[in-house]
Specification:
The complex is a heterotrimer of chains A (417), B (91) and C (1001).
Chain A: H1 7-15, E1 36-39, H2 43-56, E2 61-64, E3 80-81, H3 88-101, H4 104-108, E4 119-123, H5 126-141, E5 146-149, H6 151-157, E6 173-177, E7 181-182, H7 185-198, E8 202-204, E9 209-215, E10 218-224, E11 227-230, E12 234-236, H8 242-248, E13 256-265, E14 275-278, E15 283-287, E16 293-299, H9 311-324, E17 332-343, E18 350-353, E19 359-363, H10 373-386, H11 400-403
Parallel strand pairs in A: 1-2, 1-12, 2-8, 4-14, 12-19
Antiparallel strand pairs in A: 3-7, 4-6, 5-6, 9-10, 10-11, 13-16, 13-17, 14-15, 15-16, 18-19
Helix pairs in contact in A: 2-7, 2-10, 3-10
Chain B: E1 3-6, E2 10-13, E3 18-22, H1 36-43, E4 52-58, E5 66-72, E6 77-83
Antiparallel strand pairs in B: 1-2, 3-4, 4-5, 5-6
Chain C: E1 14-23, E2 26-32, H1 36-42, E3 47-50, E4 57-59, E5 71-74, E6 82-86, E7 96-99, H2 114-118, H3 126-129, H4 138-148, E8 162-175, H5 179-190, E9 195-198, E10 217-218, E11 221-222, H6 223-236, E12 240-243, E13 246-252, E14 256-262, E15 276-290, E16 294-296, E17 309-311, H7 312-320, E18 329-334, H8 338-348, E19 352-358, H9 366-373, E20 378-380, E21 382-388, E22 395-401, E23 408-416, E24 419-423, E25 426-428, H10 431-435, E26 439-443, E27 448-453, E28 458-460, H11 470-485, E29 497-498, E30 523-525, E31 530-531, H12 532-540, H13 546-553, H14 566-577, H15 581-584, E32 596-597, H16 598-602, H17 619-624, E33 628-632, E34 635-640, H18 648-661, E35 664-667, E36 672-677, H19 681-688, E37 701-707, E38 713-723, E39 726-731, H20 736-750, E40 757-760, E41 765-771, H21 775-782, E42 797-803, E43 806-812, E44 820-826, H22 830-841, E45 847-848, H23 851-860, E46 909-916, E47 928-930, E48 940-950, E49 955-963, E50 972-976, E51 981-987
Parallel strand pairs in C: 1-7, 8-9, 8-15, 9-12, 15-28, 17-24, 18-19, 18-24, 19-20, 35-45
Antiparallel strand pairs in C: 1-2, 3-4, 5-6, 5-7, 10-11, 10-29, 13-14, 14-15, 16-25, 21-22, 22-23, 26-27, 30-31, 33-34, 35-41, 36-39, 36-40, 37-38, 38-39, 41-44, 42-43, 43-44, 46-49, 46-51, 47-48, 48-49, 50-51
Helix pairs in contact in C: 5-6, 5-11, 7-8, 12-13, 12-14, 18-23, 21-22
The chains are: A alpha/beta (417), B mainly beta (91), C alpha+beta (1001).
């Protein structure tokens, strides 16, 4: 690697006043033609390009990004990573990703700060208990390290949770996945970008896709704000904007794009050392390395591309936070923002070929795509390179909405939708 | 937080309403005549438009009536509100 | 309190009210009217904190919400302490206790200060490049990183304070009570508009109110005098509602705004009892006027972060408003005229001003001429190249700038000072404007972003819009407000304003030093310790977008959200990349404008008000009988009724035995109830349920299953035909609201031609369900005239009878398999009828049972519970309920989906019964079922949905969904648990009374 990062390179560069660091990635103009083009420079898109180059030797490829890389949901999410999903197909997909996360900093030579501080999911009513126990049993048999915790064990693992049985929806127990945790979102995009660029992938920012050129049922290229780019394979990884691009190709997807909000508090000294999620009273929280409480809110009911949600959603979320953590009442919200999440009817993603040859979609991650970033990129790269899905993403084909073989993960998805 | 002018109650805060998604997707009159693809088209496939979208809203914490809204999903500006059964306006 | 730092100033600070406070354990004094910052400064204290990364000593820098350094931990009570409070914003109160943050052992001697020497190893983004070896060690590094990061400490006990919400609707909302906002308020009020005026400080008037200049005059009066009269007028104005100590937090679409009012934070702790601490205003304004003013910019030069370095406007405010000298030996460093006002304030207050350093070649404005005439030394075309003094500035070194302004020339001059007042010009506070979706335009003349386009009905005026000189501020505010409100004339039209006019401008985003940039520390973001070098490093490494630069260097991500840092960061990026700042754009300003307390956002909706409690009319009776309750949606349902020392298991065994052997009674009031009327009611039921309803007779009941349009089971319940065109539908407790919403949706949008009306009557009726072999006898005792014979009142039928004046609807339906009657009465008679049943049932040992027993009893009969035995992926066929799907009906909701290729597959999961080989072994609900647990990956066939020990059958029974379950009856399977494997046999779903004989008693 031309510019390997380590404590030694940091010391070496300190002597030259950090004047000699090379660019993390180039800033090329698009070529006339590529073997494949990935639309969308978020974590999933950049990871796809990285694995296309690394595992499938496709290096004459480009990632085109409307704005700046990592500026969409990659840079807006609450960075929770876990794999405790219910169905075999989902467990396979998300745990594949989790296994890559475990070595990702070393693989990319970029510290993505994957921190396995554990993720707890709380139960607040008897059906929650049944559902979470069911998920834990399924996880265990799928080789995923989730365990059930009784209320006192929940309290022991995270002492600041209010486990009083007198509150409106008392904590009746929860699950814990210790391998789960958080990572630094920006670093994931930047790390993959640097790795892909190193192998020759062109990352083209400020390049908006305006149209998809087809010849019958085969793609021929992309119309972009930087001109026409010829290519036989197009992988769309445009999250909230997936439908917009699909419409350019004359396709409809089973997606709705909705606002999802998040917020952080002012930074404080360490107070919560794990990630705690609660679906029933809808609150999830962790603490960043900087000390901010990172809190995820729910989705709005309507479609919107504004990256803004309604305030009452934030209000509801903080209400639930104070129910579970009354000590946070005097903490202050520092920043609040929104993203656009593309939601599938079964709360599972689509990583699939389409009826148009050479056009592939990776979308529908809804509220929980960040955790899957490395796995999603790897499997999507496989699908594009081979024109066939990998066995781990076969279930996530687009045809399931026709045949009725949905992968219903509403129970395991973070935000009920 | 939009303000929505419910055709039955007047202007109310958005929190009183719930969205029902894309409008003018009529339930097929003869579902059994459709093949799986056509049925999936009705059931799941959506335009999910960025721009002016015709959509359904329900005044769920009010009169409980459904009605249609033409809203620009790129800036949340409501262009027109019209009742169920009426044709979408030309915008 | 140092005497020589406090100047007599009776106007805004009440020197008769001495207040004591404690800073870092030291008792100090200030006065009513002080902020914590002014009180600290009056005691000669600048050093109040340490920076985030390098732990450099930092002092109070500003006098407002843009303060990056003076953020303190207030209070030392575990419940009441508050981290990260800006000393510049909090009003001093008696007994205030505060401490420096992010330092150990003390702010004066901080071990973390070693980071300053390691700083060459800690450039922007260093953590992305290291801490990767050995692999898996990140969490160990992270532990120390986390410990050293963070600022203050979270409270560790529950907040005892109360918070409140209020809604306000107004014609005109004016944000900011400075001179432009006040004028706009008066103009709007004179036009008879309802005005809401918000001011985040205690007093109205902004910076003009303490302006003591002789140069600026309004209508030939001293401008502050003129303003005071206007304020007096406004306070009397009936059209204007004024909220002080109220800061606008967020400006959302459709002119929806949030503001936070501080109600008690300025009071001594003993005066706060039982008062609301903060109130959140949710404002809907027809029109919004933003007059939030501007923030002074610092200048970026080597070592520009030492305690004692302050914004010039702050130095002025501390003198003119608080009567506090920030230093005894002052130097001013500026690039514009406004700092000369500070020079005059220093002069007038008799405070020593050693020199003014100005990067401009000269200035000939009235105010500069006045300063010149006072004989104050001005170094034109000079810049500061270094400062000295670790815990307090004591010296600055200046040099002459070259022609281009990119290097320094000549010899070094050293100037002594204990306070350096810096000014780099002004930045309009456009945060609210951009939050609202407004687009900015770059003004090359003043190097500022100003409001440009907006979709909302709003206006920015005054320095928030980019007008900085008094005559422009006033005249444009008047003109723009009139236009905005469509007013022809105002009382201010003839206003006469005099002020000094700035003629020379010069701006250098990064000032040169005699040292190479790499050897300097020119700070941009004081709190996050990001320097101009970090920006340049980010650009070298290819971070091109301003958002990338911000994220990589963390510039603008501190608690001040970049109020001071952002413009210089942009400027340096523009200069380095040769881009026009206007093309660069800004980073997004995200709400809130200043940090907003969680408690304030939540308001009263905490504790018992977290969510509605829905209680049945019999609730108190259950409480009296020591029932345990289960949350089902918002309902509190009796779960079981333990007697004495009974466990749940004991109680459930007793209750269910009683129901089977004699009689039991259940409060079923929570079931959803929908009254359906209309000539097409029957057709409607045909369309929403899977089974046929056409032949149901009046007085008869029928069980129905409702699907989603995707073919999956959605809800179930019994519907009774009360009369021709009149039905009563029941739904599950949890599903009631969704069911009626869904039905209304179909009715209004798909089938508007149907004459059907739906009314939710869940809360209108209470339901007591009496079941068991003696149920008939009990009902007979209460309703003596009612013919209960099976011929007259068979299973699945209904009678309406009177008990005195009470109308009773009795349904003979059963969810337990026992003979059972459900008595529905108007809710207010619920407890009466319940007690009547208990009394009549006494001789039959009538036993109240809760939901747990109900679940057991129905499981013995193989009846499903939607949501427990189904999970949104089960069709009626999967539930082995093929019989309920009408073959004759052309269509019903979900029918088409049942025939998709994957829903007709034979190998889907199907509902079955399970019996454990050991009859005493009770399966765990949620446990997975396998055939072979050794073959990996384990092939999971399904899971246990319901499981109980049946006292009647004296064995454990369970329901489960199982792949190809229909074919597996009699098969031996395994349920693997963590520490054991349970052997089970697949059985029928009906465990008890397969012949349905008990239904008739």
């Amino acid at each position: 690697m031309k510019n390997k990062y380590s404590i030694f390179s940091l010391i070496k560069n300190a002597f030259s006043n950090h004047e000699n660091w090379q660019r993390a990635w180039r800033d090329p103009e698009p070529k006339k033609e590529y073997d494949a083009v990935i639309v969308g420079g978020g974590g999933h898109g950049l990871a796809t390009a990285y694995y296309l180059a690394k595992k499938h030797n496709l290096t004459n490829i480009a990632v085109v990004e409307k704005g700046w890389i990592g500026g969409g949901n990659t840079g807006r999410n609450t960075t929770i990573i876990r794999s405790n999903y219910l169905w075999d197909a989902s467990a396979g997909l998300y745990d594949h990703a989790l296994k890559i996360w475990e070595g990702l900093s070393q693989e990319l030579n970029y510290n993505v700060m994957f921190s396995q501080r554990g993720v707890m999911n709380l139960a607040h009513n008897l059906q929650d208990v049944r559902d979470l126990k069911r998920r834990t049993h399924a996880n265990r048999l799928n080789g995923i390290d989730a365990v059930w915790l009784e209320t006192d064990e929940v309290k022991k693992f995270c002492p600041i949770i209010n486990t009083s049985q007198d509150i409106r929806y008392p904590v009746l127990g929860g699950t814990l996945q210790k391998r789960a945790g958080t990572a630094r979102h920006d670093a994931v995009a930047w790390g993959y970008a640097r790795g892909a660029d190193e192998m020759g992938v062109d990352i083209i920012q400020n390049c908006e896709v305006k149209g998809i050129k087809r010849n019958g049922d085969t793609v021929e290229g992309l119309e972009t704000s930087k001109g026409f780019i010829k290519t036989k394979k197009i992988g769309i990884v445009a999250a909230g904007h997936s439908s917009v691009i699909a419409n350019m190709a004359g396709l409809k997807l089973p997606l709705e794009s909705k606002p999802l909000q998040a917020l952080v508090s002012e930074p404080v000294k360490p107070i919560i050392d794990t990630v705690v999620m609660s679906n029933a009273v809808h609150a999830y929280v962790s603490q960043s390395d900087k000390g901010e409480l990172v809190i995820g809110a729910g989705t709005d009911s309507y479609i919107s591309y504004t990256q803004k949600g309604s305030f009452n959603i934030v209000e509801e979320t903080l209400k639930a936070i104070l129910e579970l953590y009354p000590i946070f009442s005097r903490m202050k919200m520092l920043r609040q923002w929104g993203g656009i999440v593309d939601i599938c009817p079964d709360a599972s993603p689509i990583i699939s070929k389409t009826s148009i040859k050479g056009l592939y979609f990776n979308c529908g991650w809804g509220t929980g795509g960040f955790k899957a970033t490395p796995g999603s990129g790897d499997l999507f790269a496989h699908t594009i390179a081979n024109d066939e899905p990998h066995k781990l993403n076969a279930a996530f084909n687009i045809n399931r909405f026709v045949s009725g073989d949905l992968v219903d993960e509403h129970g395991a998805a973070a935000v009920a939708h | 937080m939009f303000l929505i002018n419910c055709p039955y109650c007047g202007v109310r805060d958005q929190s009183e309403f719930v969205s029902g998604g894309e409008a003018h997707i009529a339930r097929p009159k003869q579902p059994t005549e459709l093949n799986d693809d056509q049925w999936a088209e009705y059931l799941f496939m959506r335009k999910n438009i960025k721009g002016i979208q015709f959509e359904r809203w329900n005044h769920v914490h009010g009169c409980r009536k459904w009605f249609n809204v033409a809203r620009d999903t790129s800036n949340d500006k409501i262009e027109k509100i019209y009742k169920m059964g009426e044709q979408p306006p030309k915008i | 309190m140092s005497k020589n730092l406090r100047i007599n100033n009776k106007q805004f600070v009440d020197e008769t009210r001495k207040l004591s406070f404690v800073f870092n354990g030291k008792k100090l004094h200030g006065y009513k009217g002080d902020t914590l910052a002014s009180a600290l400064l009056s005691n000669g204290i600048h050093l109040v904190g340490r920076s985030f990364k390098y732990h450099r000593p930092r002092g109070i820098m500003t006098s407002g919400s843009e303060e990056p350094n003076a953020i303190l931990q207030i209070g030392n009570d575990d419940a009441l302490t508050e981290p990260n409070v800006r000393a510049t914003e909090i009003e001093l109160y008696d007994g205030l206790v505060c401490n420096s943050q992010n330092c150990w052992p003390s702010v004066k001697f901080d071990i973390g200060g070693i980071n300053n020497f390691l700083s060459p190893l800690l450039p922007a983004g260093f953590y992305y490049k290291t801490f990767m070896w050995p692999a898996n060690f990140w969490e160990k590094y992270e532990y120390f990183i986390r410990k050293s990061a963070g600022l203050g400490k979270s409270p560790t006990k529950q907040d005892p304070d109360m918070y409140d919400h209020r809604y306000i609707h107004c014609d005109i909302l004016i944000v900011g009570g400075g001179v432009s906002g006040l004028i706009a308020a008066k103009i709007a009020s004179d036009d008879n508009k309802k005005v809401l005026l918000l001011e985040d400080k205690e007093l109205l008037g902004g910076s003009l109110i303490y302006d003591d200049s002789d140069i600026s005059k309004i209508d030939d009066q001293k401008s502050s005098e003129w303003l005071k009269k206007l304020i007096d007028n406004i306070k009397k104005d009936q059209n204007i509602t004024i909220k002080t100590r109220t800061s606008l937090a967020a400006y959302h679409n459709y002119n929806f705004l949030l503001a936070r009012q501080n109600l008690t934070d300025h009071l001594s702790v003993s005066d706060r009892n039982n008062k609301i601490r903060q109130r959140l205003y949710k404002i809907r304004a027809k029109k919004v006027i933003i007059s939030t003013g501007a923030i002074e910019r610092p200048q970026v030069f080597h070592n520009n972060d030492r305690p004692g370095i302050m914004l010039a406007s702050a130095v002025k405010k501390y003198i003119d408003y608080y009567g506090v000298r920030c230093g005894l030996e002052n130097v001013i460093f500026t690039n514009n005229d406004s700092a000369y006002e500070t020079a005059l304030s220093l002069y007038k207050s008799g405070t020593k001003l050693n020199a003014i350093v100005d990067i401009r070649d000269n200035s000939s404005s009235e105010i500069v001429n006045q300063v010149k005439s006072l004989g104050i030394q001005i170094y034109w075309n000079h810049t500061i190249v270094d400062t000295k003094g670790y815990k307090r500035i004591n010296k600055v070194t200046i040099m002459k700038l070259n022609d281009k302004g990119n290097d320094v020339i000549g010899k070094k001059i050293e100037l002594n000072c204990d306070c350096l007042a810096i000014s780099g010009g002004w930045t309009p506070m456009v945060h609210l404007f951009t939050q609202s979706g407004g687009k900015l335009r770059f003004d090359n003349k003043d190097n500022i972003f100003v409001p440009d386009k907006t979709n909302l009905d709003q206006l920015s005026i005054g320095s928030a819009k980019g007008d900085f000189e008094l005559d422009e501020v006033l005249k444009n505010s008047i003109k723009d407000t009139k236009k905005f409100l469509q007013i022809e004339n105002s009382n201010f039209d003839k206003i006469n304003v005099k002020c000094s006019k700035e003629k020379e401008k010069k701006n250098i985003w990064l000032l040169p030093s005699d040292k190479p940039l790499s050897n300097t520390k020119p700070f941009l973001d004081y709190q996050n310790d990001s320097t101009a070098k970090d920006i340049k490093l980010a650009l070298r490494e290819g971070f091109k977008s301003i958002e990338h630069v911000k994220r990589y260097t963390t510039t603008g991500m501190g608690t001040d959200q970049g109020k001071l840092a952002n413009m210089h960061a942009l400027g340096i990026v523009a200069d380095t990349t040769n881009t026009n700042m206007g093309d660069l754009g800004t980073t997004t300003f995200r709400p809130p404008y200043t940090p907003l307390t969680f408690g304030t956002i939540v308001g009263r909706n905490v504790g018992q008000f977290f969510d509605t409690f829905r209680k049945t009319p019999m609730h108190e009776w259950h409480v009296d009988k020591s029932a345990k309750f289960e949350n089902v949606g918002q309902w509190k349902r009796a779960w079981y009724y333990p007697k004495d020392t009974e466990t749940m298991h004991d109680a459930v065994q007793r209750e269910s035995k009683a129901a089977r052997e004699s009689s039991g009674i259940l409060d079923a009031s929570t079931l959803g109830k929908i009254d359906i009327q209309g000539t097409d009611a029957n057709e409607f039921l045909n369309r929403v349920y899977t089974n046929a309803w056409s032949k149901l007779q009046i007085g008869k009941c029928r069980y129905g299953l409702m699907l989603n349009e995707d073919g999956m089971v959605y809800d179930d319940g019994v519907t009774t035909k009360l009369g021709e065109n009149h039905y009563l539908m029941t739904t599950t407790t949890g599903g009631a609201a969704n069911v009626i919403s869904k039905l209304e949706d179909y009715l209004q949008t798909e089938w508007p031609e149907l004459d059907v009306f739906l009314t939710s009557v869940t809360d209108h009726y209470a339901t007591a369900c009496v079941c068991g072999p003696n149920a008939k006898k009990i009902i007979n005792k209460i309703f003596k005239d009612l013919n209960l014979s099976d011929e007259s009142f068979p299973h699945m039928s209904f009678k309406e009878v009177k008990l005195g004046n009470i109308n009773c609807r009795i349904m003979r339906i059963s969810f337990t398999g026992e003979l059972s009657y459900e008595i529905n009465v108007e809710a207010s008679y619920g407890k009466y009828i319940w007690e009547k049943c208990i009394e009549a049932g006494k001789e039959f040992n009538i036993t109240p049972y809760g939901t747990e027993t109900m679940h057991l009893l129905r499981a013995e009969k193989g009846f499903i519970i939607v949501g427990q035995d189904t999970d949104g992926t089960m069709t009626p066929v999967d539930l082995q309920m093929d019989w309920i799907i009408s073959k004759k009906k052309y269509d019903f909701i979900g029918k088409r989906s049942l025939y998709r290729s994957d829903t007709i597959r034979e190998d889907r999961k199907q509902l079955v019964g399970l019996l454990t080989d050991d009859p005493n072994e009770i399966l765990e609900e949620g446990a997975q079922i396998v055939k072979d647990e050794n073959k990996k990956p384990v092939n999971m066939l399904g899971h246990v949905t319901s499981s109980y020990f049946s006292p009647t059958l004296k064995k454990s029974i369970a329901l489960a969904v199982l792949k190809e379950g229909k074919q597996l009856k009699g098969q031996k399977l395994l349920v693997p648990m963590i520490n054991k494997t349970i052997k089970v046999t697949v059985s029928d779903t009906v465990f008890l009374d397969k012949e349905n004989e008990r239904i008739n008693g």
